[in-house]
Write a structure and sequence with these properties.
This protein is mostly helical. It has a single domain, classed as Growth Hormone, Chain: A (Up-down Bundle), CATH 1.20.1250.10. It contains seven helices and no strands. The longest helix has 24 residues. The relative contact order is 0.19.
Length: 185
Amino acid sequence: MGSISFWMCLVMTICTWNKTIGCTWMRTLPRSPSMFQVLSNNTITMLQKMGHVVSRKSQITFPNEQYRQVDNFTDNGRIVFISQTLNAIEKLYSSGKYDSTAWDQKGVEEFMIGLHRQTSELDQCVKTIKPGPSTSVKRVNKDMSLHFKFLKNYLKREEYSASGWEDIRNVVLSHMLRLVTIPID
């Protein structure tokens, strides 16, 4: 009887443990940033250092409405949103067609490494989320997919020019600065 209770307790602990540690990388401890926030801040700094001042006004609008809706999501919905957004940013930069820019290639590589680390960690978090995202999360994520498709097409229209990339870098910087402020309890 005692060994059955022990094994039952062990199985319950493992099941519960897996659920609770699934996204500890995103959780903020009292008076200290989460690992996600630390890495995000480093990635933001790298992205800021890559840039140059552009004198023209960008034609890209920021999806503020989608971010407002994220405030009403559960923590899991927020994690899914952050994951999808960072994956879309990584995909946008993975084209490697930024030869026209004056960006330091080492800085770009460091930015991509930091971004890849974030997406890898978040992908692991998303795998542990049960059940899947709600309808509202799916709708907002679809809107964000359209936004990033617009960004990709914008770069093509701009023929991957330095000014086109600067416009993209600025909107991505806005995304990164906003994503790091989304609370995960």
